[in-house]
Every structure is written in C-alpha cells, then in structure tokens.
Amino acid sequence: MTLDTLMNILVATIAAGTPLVYAALGELIVEKSGVLNLGVEGMMLVGAISGFIVMAKTGSLLLAVSCGMLAGAIMSLIFAVLTLTLMANQVASGLALTIFGTGLSSFMGIDYTSVALKGAREIHIPFFSDIPILGRLVFSYDILVYLSLVLLALVLWFLYKTRAGLILKAIGESPRSGHALGFPVIRIRYLAVLFGGAMAGLGGVYLSVAYTPMWVEGMVSGRGWVALALVVFATWRPMRVLTGAYLFGGVTIIQFHIQGFGFEIPSQVLSMLPYLATIAVLVLISRDKKLIRLNSPASLGITFHPENN
Amino acid sequence: MKQNWLPRTVLFISAMVFIVAGFSSMAFGKDKLKIGFVYVSPIGDAGWTYQHDLGRLAVEKNLGDKVSTKFIESVPEGAEAERVIRDLAKSGYKLIFTTSFGYMNPTLKVAKLFPKTIFEHSTGYKLAKNVGTYMCRFYEGRYLTGIIAGKMTKSNQLGYVAAFPIPEVIRGINAFTLGAKSVNPDIRVKVIWVNSWFDPGKEREASEALIDQGVDVITHHTDSTAPVMTAEEKGVYAIGYHSDMSKYGPNAQLTATTHVWGDYYTKVARQVLDGTWKSTAVWGGIKDGMIKLAPISKKVPADVVELVKKTQKSIADGSFHPFTGPIRRQDGKLLVKAGKHLTDKDLLGMNYYVEGIIGSIPK
C-alpha cells in the first residue's frame, strides 16, 4: 500500500463519516435534554430530498442546506408536539416518524429519481491545497465537511462552557429539579429537538447534494440508525461521536479497498465489519461504568408532566 | 323571428354524443390488445426499468391503436407483486410482461388462475403453457466493451463494481475480462462486490476505492449511475450499463452495454394478436437486436471502433463466440480448449472467474 492510497483512504473516510457526525451531534443534544428521538432516519431522508429539490431548482448550496435543515426541523416539530405537548410515548413516536419520513421522502422525490446534479465540489484554496500531503489531507474537502467541524466545536462549547448547556444537561438529568428552579423544561426540550431535526436534515442534505449528488428512495440506508447507536456507544460525548463516525466511515472505505487488493475474505463479512469494529472500539474506550453513569442523561426517554410536580 | 334554440341544441348535442360514443365503441369493439408491464423500480431516466419502458413505448409506436399499454412501477418482489399481476389479469390485460427475476413465482401462480392470459417473464427459468421467459445475452456486449476498455487503459487495471455473485453477473465479469485480454494480455480486472443492486453511496465508495488503487476504466453491474458519475468526477473512463449514461459522464463514458426490448415486445404482441404465440425461453443477443452498444465516445481511436464493429458483426453472424477457448480459470487451469466454446448450459451455471481477475467470488 503506497502513501497515496493511504491518503485517499483517509480523505474518503472523512467524507463517509460526515453525515453521521451531523446526525449524531444533533441527536446528542436531543438526548442530553432527556428526549429520545428515534426518528433520525426519517428526518435525514426528508432533509435529503428537500435539499436535493432546492439544489436542482436553484443550484444554490446555501439555499439547499437551509431548506434541508428547515425540513428536518419541521419533521422534528411533529415529534416534539406529539411527545412534549401531547405527552405521547417517545419511542413509539420516534419510530413512527422514521416510517413517515421514509414514505414522505419517496413521495416528494417521485419526479427527482435519477436527476443529475452538479453537487457541492471540493474546495481548492490556492497555496494551502497544494501543500504536499497536508494540503490534500486538510484542505481538499467540500465546504459541508468543514461546517460539520465548526458545528462540533459549537456543540462542545455549548455543552461544556455555557450556562445554557449546563441547564440543558440538568434538565436531562432531572426535569423535575429544573422545573422547580424555574426553568421552562418543555420549551428547552422543544429547542433541543428542533436542533436535532435540523442537524439530521443537514446530514441528509450532505448525502444527497455533496456525497452522492443524486436522489434515490431510501438513500440514507440505515445511517440514521447508525448515528443513534453512535451517540449511545460514545457515552453522549461529542468527541467520541466524532471518533466513532470517522471510524465507521473508515472501515466502510477500507473494506472496499481490501476487496480491490484481492484478499480472500468473503465480501459479506467485510460488509459487516464497519458495524462490528465501531461497536467494539466504542464499547472498549467507554467501558468505565462511572463515566457512563456520569454522562448518560438520567431521565432519557421519560415523559415529563410539569403539572404533576 | 324569434327562434327557440333549445330543442335544436339538445338534438345537436345528443347526435354528437351518439356519434362520438359510436366511434369509440367501434374502436374498442375492435378488440384492442391490452398489455400490462410490471416494473421493479421507478422508471427514472436510465437503468433496467427505463430500458423496459422504452420497449413499451416502442410497442405503442409500432402497433398503434391495435394495442393499449399500462405500466405499474416500483412493485416490490414477493406478495405485493402477485396482487399487482392478478389485478392486471383480472382487469382484462391479455399480455403481461413481468420484468424482474423475483416476479417468477408470483407470475406462475397468477398464470395458473388465468389460463387465457399470456405472461412473459424476464430473466426467469420456469416456463408454463401460458408463461414464456426472455432475457439478453448481456455478455456479448460485455465482451465488446472489454475490448474498448483493454485498448483505452494506461494502467492495465480495470475496475468492476458488482452487485451479487450470481451467474449472470459473473458471466459479465468474465466476458469483459476476456474481451479486454483479447487486445491486451497484461490486463487485470479488479472486482468489488457491494452486495446490493441499488445503493449509490456504496457504488460510489467502491468506485473511488478502485480508482485509488490505480484503475483507470470503471464499469459496473449495479443499477445506479453512481459509478459513471464518480469516474467523471475523478477524471477516469467509465463504461455504462443498462442505459446510455453519457449524460452523467460526458467525458468519462466510453460506451455502454444497453439492452433493447422494443423489437422483442412488438414481436410478442404481434404473435398474441395473430394467435400464434407459443411459450418459449428466449435468450437473445446482438443478432436479435436485444443488445446494443451506446454511441462510442470520440476519444476511442478509429481502429478500435473498427475492431469492435468487426467483432460485433462476427458475434451477430455466429462465426465468433465470446467464450471461445483457450480460456483459463483464475488459478490457471485450462477451462476450454482452443477452438471450442462454452455451451449455454455452462454459461447459465457459471460460478468461477477466468484468468486475469483479482479477488474471489463470495460464497
């Protein structure tokens, strides 16, 4: 394996992991507020087709990203109304949201199957992109990859450095205490869920506009569920979410390279590898029970009735 | 003079209604053959189902008002397919084309219930009195595109993104390799299995992996346009499959193996109209006009185009078979002696690679 191949694998890894970074970071914030939204897959799909339609009509990446995020947020708003205002069961509502999103996105995309799109292309910064090795590794992605890292920094800052982040985490631990202290629990959870929806939508847009610039029914193909699992296995810590997402992307890419080099491993086993490797590694690095208890939101998935307290 | 228009108008309108109704009943009375098509995916504008729909449109064009056609797209294989096929038969469709392998058993089941309806099932292997099957010798096109790929590559490495390890796909990989080796003995073909018929994300990742490993001509046996698009983006050549995909890779696509169903569908519809239809298993190729190459890119030198045309002609007139010996298996064992070629039975059960392919077939 030459250095060049290695570079190519690394670059492809970052791109393959990016949609997971978006969706998982969004879900992390949602779960930190104590809400479990299993509708990530559905929100990603609706985000993907909305962004794709806008990109096909206008050609503007900015508009496509905004509309995809908006669409994801609208989907999550349905979930929020059901679970936070009407107090419906979160697991059931989340699953319903995924099923609804799958159907809705197929319907919206009827006229857009196999429409070709000039997707978001890799940026080229004069001088920086031309530095050997480093230039290719750091300065050769499309703009949405950089955006995901900016958002990661924002999430880190918000969770660990701001008062608002502290309140969010407190509500996830004990909404009753938060309520007693006078924080608007339901309103904060609404905002968290909307943020999660917008991020899932953005992950979808990345897939349909930048990664494979085309629309295909069900094109998210399980990445929403992978994102959900990443949040849990990363014990609700953003940096580990990033590690997990890139690990998953990396193993996905590497298994194709292994096939190309002609190793005698059945391709079905290789297809399994990303899932196995990601779970194994994240479970290993997060095996400290005390840390898990410290980081997992104690009231995750439990409906909160302000009136009953 | 004041005239009362009402009775006249009524008379006029009712006369018109009668005339129109009379004509239309006459038209319907002439026993239009109703033809139904069942598709496994949306039609879109490239791919397996798109080619079948071109065939349907050709039938409409060729037979005009003798037929009327209807299609139902995105029908999942399995129980849902049976319902759709039965509904078509029930509502008077006398000729029904079911265009995916997984429709085989549903088609046979419904055919039993409607013995007077004629069914044609694509890529299957089970016949019945009122069920015929039809498919293409895709491998003939694959061999020709292999020649082009073998001449155009600079790295002597070709890439193949494949869906599932079934004989049909393996046959294509082998034919492509033989075609390429016939003009360039040093060629190596790298195969990546994505274990999916239609997953643009995976197809793209697999294509990128191949290109990263030095492949400079990509072809695929999957249903999306992602491999051609990836080749376009990365500046290597591609050979499309199913449809002409030059729209997705104007610089990348050298040509594409396409299947053409229109003539066959028209022929079958005529036979059904004349009452001469019989259940047969058709396996048509270049000779029958069922396999065609998309227009060859201007980047391919004239002598290569000439060679491809010549080979195409000799395949069509039967003087050449793409699987003519000497052919060696991947491990070097002699498979076919010089001067002999594989039989249809060998081809239908093909489960091994020929020499020159890197990788192993997943079991």
Task: Give an account of the 3D structure.
The complex is a heterodimer of chains A (309) and B (363). By secondary structure, chain A is mainly α. Chain A has a single domain, classed as Orthogonal Bundle (ABC transporter involved in vitamin B12 uptake, BtuC). Helix content of chain A is 72%, strand content 0%. In chain A, helix 2 runs parallel beside helix 4. Chain A is globular and about 65 Å long. The termini of chain A are far apart. Chain B has 363 residues and is α/β, with parallel strands linked by helices. The longest helix of chain B has 25 residues. Chain B is globular, with a radius of gyration of 24 Å. In chain B, strand 6, helix 6 and strand 7 form a beta-alpha-beta unit. In chain B, helix 5 runs parallel beside helix 6 and helix 5 packs antiparallel against helix 10. In chain B, 48% of the residues are buried. Chain B is 41% helix and 20% strand. Chain B folds into two domains: 107 residues, Rossmann fold (3-Layer(aba) Sandwich), CATH 3.40.50; 188 residues, Response regulator (Rossmann fold, 3-Layer(aba) Sandwich). The chains are: A mainly alpha (309), B alpha/beta (363). Chains A and B meet through helix 1, helix 11 and helix 12 of A and strand 7 and helix 7 of B.
What are the SSEs and their pairings?
The complex is a heterodimer of chains A (309) and B (363).
Chain A (H helix, E strand, L loop, with lengths): L2 H30 L7 H19 L2 H25 L4 H19 L25 H5 L4 H19 L1 H11 L1 H6 L4 H27 L11 H11 L4 H24 L5 H19 L3 H7 L14
Chain B lengths: L4 H25 L3 E6 L9 H16 L3 E6 L6 H12 L4 E4 L5 H10 L4 E5 L8 E6 L1 H15 L4 E6 L4 H17 L4 E6 L6 H13 L4 E5 L4 H9 L2 E6 L10 E7 L2 H13 L6 E4 L6 E3 L8 H15 L10 E2 L5 E3 L7 H5 L8 E2 L5
Parallel strand pairs in B: 1-2, 1-3, 3-4, 4-5, 5-11, 6-7, 6-8, 7-15, 8-9, 9-10
Antiparallel strand pairs in B: 10-12, 13-14
